[in-house]
Amino acid sequence: MSAIGGIVNFNGGPFDHEILTQLAQSLDVYGPDGGRDVELEPVGMCYRAFHTNLESRTERQPLVQPDGCILTWDGRLDNREELIECLRNELRGEQSDSAIVFAAWKKWGTASFSRIIGDFALSLWDSTSRTLFLARDVVGARLLFY
After folding, report:
1. Structural contact between residues 44 and 20, judged by C-beta atoms closer than 8 angstroms
2. Is-contact 104 115, C-beta < 8 A?
3. Is 143 strand, coil or helix?
């Protein structure tokens, strides 16, 4: 399993960048396949990869949209083909699990979480509404703390 982490300052001010750095470093042991950190005030997110399938090797997370929305995803998407068919126009050729999940959220909003079948945990920052979404599958095998 990969590792995700982040900091959000809901009052809109800057967050302590040193704390994000320490958080990211603490996740390094869970992500032997690399990762990166993204800072877009008032949010900082980090991702450490542990690749378990071919699709995960092409991902570059956290994913950042031009509008400032950020997604970190740790999971396995079991209904990839179904979602790809429904999201063909939104995906524009990108087919990593995280890109599919982001496209689903852009199209269906929070209803997308119930359409995702698989083993997952995610964090999604909606810069427009300044809302942080944390979600995981109903079985909850992947850890998600806040």
Report:
1. yes
2. yes
3. coil
Give 102-125 pLDDT, tens digit per residue: 999 999 999 999 999 999 999 999
Contacts of 45 (CB under 8 A, 6+ apart): 4, 5, 6, 7, 37, 38, 62, 70, 72, 123, 125
Q: Two tokens at 145?
A: 């703390």
What pLDDT was estimated at residue 53? 63
On whether the CB atoms of residues 35 and 48 are closer than 8 A, the answer is yes
DSSP labels for 77-127? Answer: ETTHHHHHHHTHHHHTT---HHHHHHHHHHHHGGGHHHH--EEEEEEEEET
Of 63, 142, 78, 90, the C-alpha closest to 115 is: 78
Task: Give dist(CA 138, CA 41) in Å, integer.
Answer: 31
| pTM above threshold 0.90 | no
Q: Encoding tokens for residue 26?
A: 């603490």
Token pair 């995960």: residue: 56
State the sign of the Cα–Cα–Cα–Cα dihedral 41, 39, 134, 127.
positive
Give the tens place of pLDDT for each residue, 125-136: 999 999 999 999
